[in-house]
Specification:
The structure is a single chain. The protein is of the alpha/beta class. It folds into four domains: 39-127, DnaA, N-terminal domain (GMP Synthetase, Chain A, domain 3); 213-361, Rossmann fold (3-Layer(aba) Sandwich); 381-430, no CATH class; 444-532, Chromosomal Replication Initiator Protein Dnaa, Chain: A (Orthogonal Bundle). It has helices at residues 7-64, 67-74, 95-104, 106-117, 138-153, 173-188, 213-224, 245-259, 270-282, 286-296, 312-327, 348-354, 367-380, 387-396, 401-418, 424-430, 444-455, 459-463, 469-485, 490-496, 502-518, 520-532; strands at 79-84, 87-92, 122-127, 234-238, 265-269, 299-303, 331-336, 358-361. Strand 1 and strand 2 form a beta hairpin.
């Protein structure tokens, strides 16, 4: 080999080539990094826009569905996945939610898309894969399954062993049943928010039947032509508790708000009307109270007007307000559990004015109407039961729509808490129906349990010598209902409640009767317990 071969030239050239290659690589890396940064920024911007669109769509949906449905199916469950080629894909966590949305809420979603993006888009709903990251794929899932299988094949280590709660800390069946009963009683308990117009109580959500069709038709006519412009400037609706009077009041209020948004509506309970007047009197500002109702209100609706009985000062103010509004042609609507003539403790001049308008009653619903009410309520609370169970419940529960709906609330709570499907045996057990489909006869024991559950005390406390205010009230009501419902003798009641003598029982019964006639809250509580029985 020649010694004159130019190694130095070759090596220098190679070094230069290497430097050039390094420079090229550096340029490529910097270009790639720049593109990556640009792509990341673009992706970030697109992600931000997608989040903004998703938020706006959810905002539209929140205004078009009930708060309960929005919380159950949309809030933290419904999100925008992709928008491409004029098509939108949404994601939900479970197949159940996907089915519910596709069956019932596709029009709402379509309107929300139009309201957000200004035009219609084709859209679909898919179920999100759980426990997956954006970079996961089918191979990762298979690999994960293989790992899980390997974990099952090998013995567990000490740190992997899970411990369950001691039996003393696990809720007992009685604890779970108490939770079910609490949800049921909460449904039956009258709302304190009587002055707030309930947007869900509309004419469309009111089930019509032979027992209430006249009241419904009249209320609907008023919503389309209130006051002196219509046929019924004064309306008085009466019925037993829980048959839909309050629902119609809210439906009229919602209808007038929609048809005549400029009118001022005041929907209030008689008790709140009285409390407002008393507060104004204490402030030495009764004039403002009078002006509010006689000058500012276009539609006055008072629920449970009978609760003004024996309230002479409030009755006097009501009398003058009624006259002012009636003369001005404003709309007046009142509800009660009695006809005007039957209300004790109301001045004759007020009874006369309450009868100036149309007086309508609502009767107890027939079987077909009760079944329709049950099916509508079951849909609202997402309770799925067979049709024959609706028939069974409707045949058993005849007196009150509130009690009818309460039966479904109890069944739904039981299904959720116990994690079971509702069948005929569960219905009969929870609703106290015997094998013939008839209501079980009550006893001292069942009445004591109902009163203890309502007042949140123990049955043992009712039989004890304890005289705290809460326990004494619960004990007195239990004695009163025992005497009224099952006709138990004074001696039987005394023996059951800790061996008390008959004079104590007589005092308890008289005390409760007195409170029922003078105290609206006690009257409602006792009626509520009686309805649950």
């Amino acid at each position: 080999m020649s010694q004159d071969f130019p190694f130095e030239l070759f090596l220098n050239s190679s070094a230069k080539n290497l430097k050039t290659l390094d420079l090229a690589n550096t340029i490529i890396k910097e270009t790639s990094a720049a593109k990556k940064t640009e792509n990341t920024a673009e992706e970030s911007m697109l992600a931000h826009e997608a989040e903004e669109i998703s938020r706006n769509i959810l905002s539209h949906l929140k205004n078009s569905v009930s708060s309960q449905k929005f919380s159950a199916y949309f809030d933290n469950n419904f999100s925008l996945k992709t928008i491409r080629s004029g098509r939108i894909e949404f994601s939900v966590p479970t197949p159940f939610i996907k089915t519910i949305l596709e069956r019932h809420y596709m029009p709402n979603i379509n309107e929300a898309i139009i309201g957000t993006l200004g035009k219609e888009f084709a859209f679909s709903i898919s179920v999100a894969k759980t426990n997956s990251s954006p970079s996961s794929n089918q191979d990762n899932i298979l690999h994960s399954l293989q790992e899980k299988k390997g974990e099952l094949d090998r013995p567990k280590q000490a740190k992997e062993v899970k411990f369950s709660l001691p039996k003393t800390l696990v809720p007992t069946k009685d604890d779970l049943n108490l939770k079910v009963e609490s949800k049921y009683l909460e449904h039956l308990r009258p709302s304190d928010l009587g002055v707030v117009i309930d947007k869900k109580k509309t004419f469309d959500s009111f089930i019509i039947g032979p027992s209430n069709n006249l009241a419904y038709a009249t209320a609907r006519a008023i919503s389309g032509s209130p006051g002196k412009a219509g046929k019924y400037p004064s309306l008085y609706i009466y019925s037993d508790s829980g048959l839909g009077k309050t629902h119609l009041l809210h439906a009229v209020a919602n209808g007038i708000q929609e048809n005549f948004p400029s009118l001022t509506i005041c929907l209030i309970t008689a008790r709140d009307f009285q409390n407002e007047m008393v507060a104004a009197t204490l402030r030495n500002d009764i004039t403002s109270f009078q002006k509010k109702y006689s000058e500012k209100v276009d539609v006055l609706m008072i629920d449970d007007i009978h609760e003004l009985k024996n309230k002479k000062g409030t009755q006097n103010e009501f009398f003058h307000i009624f006259n002012e509004l009636y003369i001005k042609g404003k709309q007046l609507i009142f509800t009660s559990d009695k006809t005007p003539k039957e209300i004790d403790g109301i001045e004759e001049r007020i009874k006369t004015r309450l009868q100036w308008g149309l007086v309508i009653d609502i009767q107890k619903p027939d079987l077909e109407t009760r079944i329709a009410i049950l099916k509508k309520k079951a849909y609202e609370i997402d309770l799925f039961i067979h049709d024959d169970l609706f028939q069974l419940i409707a045949q058993h529960t005849r007196d009150s729509i509130r009690e009818l709906e309460g039966a479904l609330v109890k069944l739904s709570a039981y299904s959720d808490v116990m994690n079971v499907e509702i069948d005929a045996d569960i219905v009969k057990e929870l609703l106290a129906i015997n094998s013939n489909g008839e209501q079980k006869k009550h006893s001292l024991d069942t009445i004591s349990k109902a009163c203890a559950s309502h007042y949140k005390v123990h049955v043992a406390d009712l039989k004890s010598k304890t005289r705290s205010k809460e326990i004494t009230m619960a004990r007195h009501v239990a004695m009163y209902l025992s005497h009224k419902i099952i006709g138990a003798t004074l001696q039987e009641i005394g023996a059951f409640y800790g061996g008390r003598d008959h004079t104590s029982i007589i005092h308890a019964i008289r005390k409760v009767k007195e409170l029922i006639s003078t105290n609206g809250a006690t009257s409602k509580e006792v009626s509520l317990i009686e309805n649950t029985l």
